[in-house]
Amino acid sequence: MENLFLVCLVPPVSIVEDIDAIRNYISEEFNVYESLKRPAHITLYNPVKITTLEMEERFFNTLAFATYQDSFMQVLSHFGSFPSHTFYLNVVQNPGIMNLQAQIKTALKPLKLLPQTDHFKYTPHLTLAFKDVKPPVFEEIIKTFKDRKFKREFLVSGFSVYKHVNKRWQPYKEFMFKNPKDNPKILDLFS
């Protein structure tokens, strides 16, 4: 048994349709297709390979503890890049998304699913083109979008887990937020 999972935020369908229109335009105009192999998403935890049923169960049980969070508004605003390989939609940093990502990372850390060297600074983004983008094409994409505007916002009230099946990422499980006051891990001396 070997499964690959991705923990992420997926915007509402209407916003995904707008994002997919941009991704399709980039693919057709610049002959880059790698980003179309993935759903439009904001990664919260890097993809992880799980090889046992026991570890898979621990993974999902642990994620359930990261659901004690208040809903928040998430804004996608304009374009950005990681030079010279990834072009993306900016995901505006706010306490909601930063706390959610930190909560998931902290909850899953004891499972040792990621290498110990994984100390990256979390920069939330929604990828539009990457991997098969060569530097000259990257520059053309940047030039094409430098004056274009994009802004959408949506309510985040949970997160998703996608599973890699038949070379495609498929929705697998949804985790809806629960009231933080109901978190059994929080002890209150006065309750």
From TrEMBL:
Residues spanning the signal sequence: none
Keyword Ligase: yes
An example molecular function term from Gene Ontology annotations: ligase activity
Sorted UniProt keywords: Ligase
SUPFAM superfamilies, per the entry: LigT-like
Keyword match Cell cycle: no
Listed Pfam families: 2_5_RNA_ligase2 (PF13563)
Protein name: 2'-5' RNA ligase
Organism: Pedobacter psychrotolerans
